[in-house]
Amino acid sequence: MQKVLFITYFWPPSGKATLHWPLKIIKHLPGYGWQPLVLTADEDTFSSKDESLLKEVDPDLKIFKARALEPFGIYRRLLGKKKDTPLTASETISKTNRSLRHRLAVWIRMNLFIPDARIGWYWNAVRKGKQILKSENIKAIVSIGPPHTTLLVGKKLSAIADIPHIPVFIDPWVDISYYQDFKRSKFTLTIDRRLERSVLEKAARIVFVTNSMKEDYERRYPHIQSKSHVLYWGYDEEAFSTYISKILDGPEILLHAGNIYDHQNPKMLWTTLRREIDKGRNLTIVFVGTVGPGIRQSIQDAGLSERTVYKGFLPYKQMIEEISTASYLLVCASEKRHVPGKLFEYLRSGKPILAFGDGNEEVQRILEETHAGMIFPLMSDGKEFFEQLQRFQTDLNSVKRFDRKEIAGSLAKIFDEIVSA
User: Fold this and answer.
1) CATH code at 383?
2) Three-state secondary-structure class, residue 148
3) Kindly report the CA angle at 173 between 170 and 178, in degrees rounded to 5?
4) 245 and 371 assigned to the same domain
5) pTM for this one?
């Protein structure tokens, strides 16, 4: 069995959603003739912890850790927070917080940490990676971004050992969605673009988790067309092995799972929900994950505070349980090159999906092909969703092509191609 090194910053017990792709892909790769090894950070001090994910890790899997140097302690001090005070993703990039300390912290994050706030891990990761390459007969390297620092680590180790490198783009790099509306200097952008270009040029193959992102990168970098692939984010079929969709007594539940930022705020939807409630509909809104302060304010302004439940971060299995009890599932696909990871769990649940996003043709196509729901422009009120609920009957046979076991098989084929080339 040939060996492949995965470089992923996030790993259990981190609860970061980004780790689910490598975690589940790695589990299935030995069935396709590839033995994975993992290089990760020693600790993720930002994300919430999900200890239950440790049970998903094969005890025989070799895991190597390099010390992480994260700037979030500095950020806490800038904001006057205590050392162990939790931070949330929506808080650290909030635009509603206009305090000087917060704006300074955001400016530093956007302009001095290139390509991202985990760049401090780079040198330790490269050092640890060199040790791995000396002791293990690695045939290919896979790096998962974001953080895109991991892609730089993969490129460097590939060059050192002359081993093919496959960067995986979960999100775009230089123009990732949460950078929008934040000012980055020309100098910062120039460096960041050069780093992005260098990874793409040196890569043996490139994996994107959406077709729209692949097409966007190919427009900007035409030379990568022959080595680019799409492997969707997908879902874990095993997580649904005991899944039962539940109809509970009480209100209809509109659930949003995962982080939702202020730039993803479907402001007119809250008005629609208020109107539905005033007409007699018994509706409750539930958020699992962090919620931007601007969205909370919009919900309050619509008079929905008493109808809204904020559950915060929940372990993955509890999140699936929340999905099972929901009536409808909300997703905001505001980045048109992005298919939110949670969409695939939503699809597998069979529940009607209410999506918002400007110009996101890929999410629209997936929803139409699976008969699972509707997508509206971000500033639409979405009222047609509630008028046409009866037409949404998810085709689970169509959904199962997104099972990560199938995706792992496609990745293994890429490994076979580049090693035999």
Assistant:
1) 3.40.50.2000
2) coil
3) 85
4) yes
5) 0.87
